Amino acid sequence: MIIAETHRLILRTLNESDLDALMSVWGDQEVMRYSGGAGTREREENALKFYITLYKENGYSPYAVIEKKNQGFLGVCGFNPPSENGEIELVYHFAKKHWGMGYATEAAEACIDYAKNHFLTDKIAAFIDPENIGSENVLKKLGFEYKGAKFHQGSQKIEPYFVLTL
Ligand SMILES: CC(C)(COP(=O)(O)OP(=O)(O)OC[C@H]1O[C@@H](n2cnc3c(N)ncnc32)[C@H](O)[C@@H]1OP(=O)(O)O)[C@@H](O)C(=O)NCCC(=O)NCCS
User: Fold this and answer.
1) Which is the closest atom of ligand 1 to the Cα of 93?
2) Cα-based distances in Å from 114 to 13, 26, 55
């Protein structure tokens, strides 16, 4: 199912046949350096199943980001479930050869619009590793506000915490 279309991108729901493409992202140590490290195929197959169910039950998940021009799989962008008493979390992971072309910002803007238009939430959170300058820049471009350091259940670490109010 198509979630959004932008100038260059299509965002669609994940499906089970995406595993090979996802391994080029979630299975790559450099891409996942600030997100808990590269996963095994088995771990990411479980993650994919979790996200397919998450979308069916809640209407959000990370989505596949596809390049319109050649239908190539660039990465994922979308939402993780909230931490306890928190907001849904914006996440984005792109294959390394596609970094630096504005895709993360373009995809995340479309996800934020989707959340707004489908009343998924009125606030979106994001946590980053303090060394992940690229990710911090994406959040700043999207208008997220830094709210201090907060414990993040996903990473089990205290991390810089950002919020966007819709
Ligand atoms: C972080 C990430 C998503 C950025 O994707 P991207 O498509 O390259 O981002 P954009 O091109 O939209 O860049 C947005 C801004 O950040 C800047 N930026 C991107 N990567 C950067 C880096 N490594 N260092 C400094 N600035 C960076 C860009 O120059 C751009 O600013 P500009 O428009 O003023 O030039 C991508 O590098 C990635 O997938 N990293 C691995 C996964 C990850 O860490 N995800 C975040 C955790 S949820």
Assistant:
1) 39
2) 13, 24, 13
- Please write the tens of the pLDDT for every residue from 38-83: 999 999 999 999 999 999 999 999 999 999 999 999 999 999 999 8
How distant, in Å, are the alpha carbons of 39, 88, 91, 127, 149 from that of 130?
Answer: 21, 20, 15, 9, 10
pTM exceeds 0.85 for this model: yes
31, 135, 155, 157: which to mutate for ligand 1, most atoms within 8 A of CB? 135
Return the structure tokens found at 99. Answer: 């970094």
User: Which among 82, 77, 159, 78 is positioned nearest to 125, based on CA atoms?
Assistant: 82
- Please provide the size of the chain in residues: 166
- The sign of the torsion formed by the CA atoms of 103, 39, 3, 145 equals negative
What's the number of domains the chain is made of? 1
Give me the residues paired with residue 12 across strands.
2, 64
Would you call 20 helix, strand, or coil by DSSP? Answer: helix
Q: What is the domain extent for residue 113?
A: 2-165
d(CA 133, CA 114): 26
